[in-house]
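During the first year of the project, the team set up a workflow for recording each protein of interest as an amino acid sequence followed immediately by a discrete structure-token representation. This format lets reviewers and collaborators read both layers of information side by side without switching files. As required by the reporting guidelines, we include two representative entries from the current panel. The first entry is reproduced here exactly as it appears in our internal archive.
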Amino acid sequence: MEEEEIGVNNPVEREEIEKNKTKKTGISGVIMSAVNWIIMLCDELHWSFVMGVIAVYGISQGLSMGLSRVTMQYYMKDEQKIQPSEAQISMGVVRFPWVVKPLWGLLTDVVPLSGYRRKPYFIFAGFLGVISMLVLSIVDGLHLVPAVLCLMAGSAGVAIADVTIDACITENSSSHPTLASDMQSLCGLSSSIGALAGFIISGFLVHLVGSKVNEKFSDATKAMWTTLKSQHVWKPCLYMFLSLALGINIHEGLFYWYTDGKGGPLFSKEIVGSIYSVGALGSLCGVLLYQNMLKNRPYHDLLFWTQLLHCGSGMLDLILVLRLNLNLYIPDYLFVVIDEGVSHMIGRLKWMPLLVLSSKLCPCGIEGTFFALLMSIDQVGMLTSTWAGGFVLHILHVTRSEFDNLWLAVLIRNLLRLTPIFLLFLVPRTDPNLPVLPSEISKTKRDTENLEMASLLDTS
């Protein structure tokens, strides 16, 4: 025993042990590191919470988004035969259920069904999504309006499930503040891996298949208003909205150009799906980079550099549309793959600190409602961005077959991406591992009575 104790306490031998540990590199080392990280989260936060995040973010959002994005775009172009500006507006309408996320959050926080506050909404969300997609796939010759309504219903199903699990995430962020970044990284990883899998097969699939409720409402509303009045909250909210709204979205115009045979490179469905899968892979790399290197950086500094890189990555689209890549002897497909991977990685790096910050702005007791409110603000920003992009495409006369001014739309978008840098004074210069809310707002009563998913929050 004495020899063993001497061996363990010997600095030289201890250093050798540490060196041997660091030799576990390569794929096996990465896999074991990821497994140990998941086990740590299960131990600290309960396995049911981790599985819930993976199910909602990985399957309901990531995988379904990967499968449906290409499908919806080709559906709008080939079945509905509408212009890119109209498709842009329609896609914005489909995202409207995410704008009203506070409504779903309020329901899950204060309106239990049959004594349960979570499970019924998961079930309802599942049925809503399945039924709406069945109607869309079975009914032939569906008019644009009912088709968009079906897509909205499916989007609402995903949004309701998202709100329910987000409530658990924000509560855990309050009780485990040092794990807030890890939880958002788990969400991002699940979403990115799910989207990667969905995008990989999407192109081929498209090719082949074508009592005190009023009081609780009042209390929740007052708590939300009190929180929103704090400058620690409304300033970051304003920044998140403006940073999203000012970066106009013209993706539908680029998609129509990708698949055009005259002005564009005429990518096939399979190639489009593979391009998007590279984007999902880039997003995954962004999450990994954030988790391992950047999660402890102050919000302000990280957002400055990611926003600057976001503007720079947009110039790759400009080079592509002007076909300057051909002058550099870089084929269109290779350049698009590089563009998609880089832009999505930077976009994810830009988004992660905002998610962490949002999770720390939620007061106890109405976490689901308030986080849903914050996310709805983001959705309003993205909706504004989408519709503004559609307006720009329309004004510049970018249509199904005319792309002469598409380069100008890309240039306008890239210049607008610089503007959020001048709004960074709205973002706190704090350590992301520390609380953001003042103590008088964050320390409110938490009610987990009749919460059948309490194991997601309480591991004792």
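The second entry, processed by the same pipeline in the following quarter, appears below.
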Amino acid sequence: MAHQFEPLKNDLIVRAAWAGRYLPEYHEAKGKHDFFECCRSPEIASTLTLQPVERFTGLIDAAIIFSDILVIPQALGMTVEMLDGKGPHFPKPLKSPDDGQYEEVLQKKVDAAAELDYVYKAITLTRHKLKGRVPLYGFCGAPWTLLCYMVEGGGSKLFIQTKTWIYKYPEATKALLQKIAEVCVEYLALQIQAGAQLVQVFDSWAAELSPSSFKEFSLQYLAYISENLPKRLKELKLDPVPMVVFAKGAWYALDSLCNLGYQVVGLDWLQDPAEAVKIRGGRPVVFQGNADPGVLYGTREAITKAVESMIEGFGGGKQGWIANLGHGITPGVKPDDLRFYFEEIHRLTGK
């Protein structure tokens, strides 16, 4: 199904992922709905997606659809709740390959078009509302990060269950990672069909793996997505779109990440931009990053210094990199400080 959208008026990208969750208007639009109810309502999700674009008019150059990486485990048949003050919670995480639920998830024939239809509706609605002002990002969680949530039951400091799985049940782990990767490809393809103009794969828990374990349990599944998404788009008679990979904390894997076929590689604040540029060499990869979101708690001088350092590290000017925070906005950041961060990027790049 082809959608007719207004032509894009702004193809520069300076963005902050999920800035909207910490804006005062977010809570007003969310009302009494719980988090996943907002994700499942195309109208609410679209409104929340547009809030940062409208508050920071002319300062941010892309929107990211309001959703969550954990909609894939939900599509795989698992229950996920969002608990206030605690974050995501799986009442019944995967315990072992023979717990019954593991086999159910592995064998489930996921109809990504039906199960995640609300995301595609939100994307199409948002594209129409954007009227070509800025491009719209779609996204998914990386297989490794989704597996962490599915076996830990939520966020974790020690990742005891996850480490048990990879070191006790490596083959069962890989079978599940492959299953998740296949769902990711279909999910991203259908987001693009619905109107997403770029897609990002978030590997938020990549730093929990050693370099050798990262190769075994993350890298090959990120590669599967980048290799198979363009093929799936071709089958759907859709043009390819830029793909972004963001493996938070996996600074040791930057060289490998630049070889995976993603057009954009996200960097967090643990990486030195100038060093990253050296590692990339002449490969046609754009970097996205990489200020520490924590700088937004600081003084205006600290914010300016962080932006200067980032611009200098990426080689100055505004070509060949996407200004971004090294992860999402953190709680308690004042919208005016975020605005100042955006303004400094524009001022210092001469945009």
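For the second entry, the following points were noted during internal review. The first strand starts at residue 63 and ends at 64. The mean pLDDT is 94. Both points are flagged for discussion at the upcoming steering committee meeting.
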